[in-house]
Specification:
117 residues; four-stranded mixed β-sheet; 25% strand; binds zinc ion
């Protein structure tokens, strides 16, 4: 089994199994491993949760060693892109009232379907 050598701020060098380590990768634009990427492990000696920044090289090494990769999706780690707002007109209070009235009809679902192009 592959051993991964990492350093704990308390204990110094420690040996880990790939399953002890989680690689957290932030993808941003062209960068496969962007700033904010990190890896973390619970130190086998002191149980401290250690988090360290990961660059392209470290991510490559850990992945090759069989470490589980977690990629930042649309969650809290993903940068927001205000330059790409959703398409279409903004929702107005009138739209909301129309939608509310539509939902009170019995065939609202069919009506919705007939609205989609
Ligand atoms: Zn430790």
């Amino acid at each position: 089994m592959t051993r991964i050598r990492a350093s704990c701020p308390e204990c110094g060098e420690v040996d880990l199994r790939p399953t002890d380590v989680t690689l957290h990768v932030v993808r941003y634009g062209e960068d496969d491993v962007a700033a904010g990427s990190s890896y973390r492990f619970a130190c086998p000696d002191c149980d401290e949760l250690v988090t360290k920044p990961a660059d392209e090289r470290i991510a490559q090494l850990l992945t090759t060693g069989g470490v589980e990769v977690e990629v930042a999706g649309a969650g809290r780690f993903e940068p927001v892109h205000p330059e790409f707002p959703p398409q279409g007109p903004a929702l107005t209070p009138d739209d909301l009232i129309d939608f509310h009235q539509l939902l009170e009809t019995d065939d609202w679902f069919e009506q919705l379907l007939s609205l989609t192009p």
